[in-house]
């Protein structure tokens, strides 16, 4: 009887030692740095990705990882039920356990896209289309359909997307980024509208957006923005045409080839502020926060004209005689 008990105890001890060795081996494997060729790889996990599909992607991408072991690691740790879609960068500093935890936590690799102040909606769409990491879903969607999907009260998209740098995970859709930019622009516009000069000659936030887009295109010089905005505000108050070239260029569309001729100034379009008084019907670009605030709080002065000095700054004038002298000096290169 004692012999049987001894044999049983020895067998039990052997089993415990075997299990301990297995556990130690598993722990060592789970925490051993990965073999990654090349030094870093990136995988994109689709929605519904499983540990087995993930480890197969990893092996195909150059990460040497035991398939069954990774599956069991994810299952026993409970991480398999939390795997999240997205792009993940894998490096030799990762271990199987750390990688599984990162995927469960959604620690995704992010990309950046900058929408530049003064860009048109067409330029924004082109930037989105040029990003291979952005999933394209808006092909064939016209402007009205896009605005309806955004839940917007406006039918024209121009100017309604805030210029900023946006971070996103690969696989994010073009619509998701536009929605983020649209909501950001509405917030910025509301801030500017709430802070507006009460004597401002615009009636709605949308008209403020239109004015801000013109200010954005007319000057990038920070110190001149408020003064330029003041010129347009003064003209609006007295019913004088805005006569701003960027609106003419916008109305020309693809006909614009880098130059404005006299006949372009005389050719009427809804955006030609030489042939029509008041603001154009829509913005002509995406204004940033500085242009929005300059439009909301224009400079107080008596200027009705301005001209570029050629260095990014502007020269202002109260009357046409002064303006003509400025044009002669800064545009035609003649000394008065």
From TrEMBL:
InterPro entries: MLTG-like. It catalyses: a peptidoglycan chain = a peptidoglycan chain with N-acetyl-1,6-anhydromuramyl-[peptide] at the reducing end + a peptidoglycan chain with N-acetylglucosamine at the non-reducing end. The keyword Cell inner membrane applies. It comes from the Bacteria. It holds the Pfam family YceG. Its EC number is 4.2.2.29. GO terms for molecular function: lytic endotransglycosylase activity. One of its GO terms (cellular component) is plasma membrane. The keyword Cell wall biogenesis/degradation applies. Keywords: Cell inner membrane, Cell membrane, Cell wall biogenesis/degradation, Lyase, Membrane, Transmembrane, Transmembrane helix. Gene3D superfamilies: Classic Zinc Finger, Endolytic murein transglycosylase. GO terms for biological process: cell wall organization; peptidoglycan biosynthetic process. The record marks 218 as: Important for catalytic activity. Functions as a peptidoglycan terminase that cleaves nascent peptidoglycan strands endolytically to terminate their elongation. Belongs to the transglycosylase MltG family. This is Endolytic murein transglycosylase. It comes from Corticimicrobacter populi. The lineage of its organism: Bacteria, Pseudomonadati, Pseudomonadota, Betaproteobacteria, Burkholderiales. The gene is mltG.
């Amino acid at each position: 009887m004692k012999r049987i008990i001894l044999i049983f105890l020895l067998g039990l001890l052997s089993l415990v030692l075997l299990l301990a060795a297995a556990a130690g081996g598993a722990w060592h494997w789970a925490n051993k740095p990965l073999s990654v060729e090349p030094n870093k790889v990136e995988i994109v996990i689709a929605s519904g990705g499983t540990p087995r599909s993930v480890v197969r992607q990893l092996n195909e991408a150059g990460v040497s990882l035991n398939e069954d072991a990774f599956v069991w690691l994810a299952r026993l740790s409970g991480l398999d039920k939390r795997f999240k879609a997205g792009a993940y960068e894998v490096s030799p500093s990762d271990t199987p356990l750390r990688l599984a935890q990162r995927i469960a936590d959604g620690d995704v690799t992010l990309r950046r896209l900058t929408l530049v102040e003064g860009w048109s909606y067409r330029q924004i769409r082109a930037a989105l289309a040029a990003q291979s990491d952005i999933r394209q879903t808006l092909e064939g969607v016209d402007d009205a359909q896009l605005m309806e999907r955004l839940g917007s009260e406006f039918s024209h998209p121009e100017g309604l997307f805030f210029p900023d740098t946006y971070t996103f995970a690969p696989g994010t859709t073009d619509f998701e980024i536009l929605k983020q930019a649209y909501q950001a622009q509405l917030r910025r516009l509301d801030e500017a509208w709430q802070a507006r000069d009460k004597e401002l000659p615009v009636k709605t936030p949308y008209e403020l957006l239109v004015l801000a887009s013109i200010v954005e295109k007319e000057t990038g010089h920070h110190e001149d923005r408020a003064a330029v905005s003041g010129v347009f505000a003064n003209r609006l108050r007295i019913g004088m045409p805005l006569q701003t070239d960027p609106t003419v260029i916008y109305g020309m569309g693809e006909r614009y080839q880098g130059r404005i001729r006299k006949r372009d100034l005389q050719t009427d379009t809804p955006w030609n502020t030489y042939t029509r008084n008041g603001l154009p019907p829509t913005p002509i670009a995406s204004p940033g926060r500085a242009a929005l605030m300059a439009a909301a709080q224009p400079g107080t002065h008596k200027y009705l004209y301005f001209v570029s000095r050629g260095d990014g700054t502007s020269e202002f004038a109260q009357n046409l005689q002064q303006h003509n002298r400025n044009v002669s000096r800064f545009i035609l290169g003649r000394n008065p």
